[in-house]
Every structure is written in C-alpha cells, then in structure tokens.
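**Archive record**
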Amino acid sequence: MGKEAPVSFLSEKEQAALYSSEGKFRVSLYKVLLYFYTADALKAGVISLKPAYRYLSLENYLHPKEHWQANKNRLLEEAGLLDFADIDQLIATFQKKLHGAYHKTNRRIKADKNQHIKFDPKGRMVLATPKVEKINTQSVSSLFADQKYTSVLKILSDIQRLTGYLDCFRHHSVKDKKILPKTSIFYAAILGMGCNIGISKMANVSKGITEDALENFVNWHMSLDNINAANQCILDLLGKLSLASIYQKNPGELHTSSDGRKVSVVVESLNANKSFKYFGSGSGSSLYSFIDELNRLFYTTSISSSEREAAYVADGLLHNLSIKSTIHSLIHMVILKQFLGY
C-alpha cells in the first residue's frame, strides 16, 4: 500500500495529513482512516459484505425483482397490504386526513374552544399544558407479611403455584418420555441464567445441585420456545388481574411503550460493542424491552449497543399476538404502525 491507494473519499484536510513533512506517505494513518470510513459506510448501507450475516445489501433482504413483479398482488394480499399498493392514493388519503385534522384544530382554536391555546398581545401562540393533579396513594405494605424482604425463590414458587409455568420447560426429545428433574433445579437454572449469575457459580452456591445437572437442564429444557411459553403463562395471569387494570386509562385501548438500557458484558458476545460513553473501557449491549399499561413486560431482546432501537419496534409489537397494542409511545414509528394496522 502506497501513494497509489485511493484517497478521493477523504476530506482535503485528511488527504494533506497523509503525507509527512518529508513527503512520505503515512500508511498507518491511511489504514486508520480507511477503517473509520468503512465502518461508517457499512452502518449507512453504502457498501455491503457479500458473505456477511448482518451487513448485506438491501436487495438481499427483499424478494427477487422478477418474483416480486410476477407475484406482487398475491404477496400484498397475503400480507394484508393491498390497501397500500397504490402509493399515490395512499398519500392522498393521508393528506386528506391530515388536512381535516389541521382544519378541525384551527377551527376550535378560532372559536376559542381549545383551552390550552392562547395568544399574547403580539399574536404569538402560547401553549398551556394542563396541570397534573397529584393522587393521594396509601402504602400497600400492610397487605404483605411483616417480613422486610421477600426472597426471589418465594416469588418464583408463588407464581408457579398460580400459573404452573414450570410445566412449559419440556424436554427437547419427543420420542421418549423424559423424567423431569426436581423443582430446585428449575429454580436454580432460572436464577442462574436470568440474574446473570452463571451456571457454574449457581451450582457452587446451591446445596444438592451439581453443575452437570444444571447444564443438562439448560441445554435440554430451556429453549427459546419453552421460555416464551412460560412467560406467556405469566402474562395471561397478569391480564386477568383486576388490580393491574387500574393503570389502564381507556379500557378500549392498550398503551404500550419500549425502551432500551445499556448493560456491560464481560464475556465474548456477538452483540457487545465498545462504548466509552456507557461502558468506559469495557464492552456492552442494549436490552430493549416492551411493557404495557398492565405492567406486563411482554418482549425483550438483546441488540448491539451501536444499533438504533427504532428498527426493532416492529419485532416487539408483532411478537405477542395476545397483546394488541393500539398506542405505542415511539412517535417516529407512526408510518410503520399504519401498515401494521395499529
């Protein structure tokens, strides 16, 4: 690599910095700049890697062009998107709705029916948000036992008694009937994996439970389908509780929300990235979770800390068909929700 290397993608200042005062080409600096520009281009989709899993070209994620042109109407019908086939008609419909909403809002302001919009002497609009009234709430500590703390194990066992979620952790094998391990192994595996303790450490601090037994349970019982089924049992119970519904503002609507949090990762992981802002000199990933008004945490996924969470909103909304979200808090997903019918 020398002076013949392409430099047109660099700025004028960067191109000038490539040469030392003696006119020597600085190969090390060129490599660093090349890596930076390559990483940015991969994230922006300007370039793609043919054998890659994540950074493919956009065409590789779509139907082949010939297949799309020959089966367009059938594919749209199967996806329930025939109403969106004519983009001109779709835009005209949205424009009509938007114009009507603006007209209605302006008419109410002009008729002085909007209590939150006022105008100062210079004719500038002043928005007055309503004051939030504080609700007097009483402590619920009297409803529980006199204990200061409640163990996680007791919580897991109480939920098992009400939902039977442990029955969802079936063995992978469907040929032979497998004898289920004792209940303590179920709880130890859930705590070890769910609390990020680890199987080895959990086995060391647990009496009467070996690491082999825990590892066997995790490998043969804790599949993603089984975990989702167990979570569904708990979600179904929460949906039936009258106490959970007190947070629901409108019984005919279900408001959901999603947010991510950064988590440090100290082991090798495909989703872990360096980020000095969040992890200092370490690495980490983002845990992106969904919750609804009934306080049901119905979807969580782990993504790279450098990725945008907005791209995974549709995954959460479509993951659980029993939880039908009518309002989601991310405003930039309005168009996507139109296509999904929310």
User: Anything to note?
Assistant: Residues 175 and 220 are 14 Å apart (CA to CA). The chain has twelve helices and seven strands. The first helix runs from residue 12 to 17. Strands lie at 117-119, 125-127, 255-265, 273-274, 283-292, 297-304, 327-328.
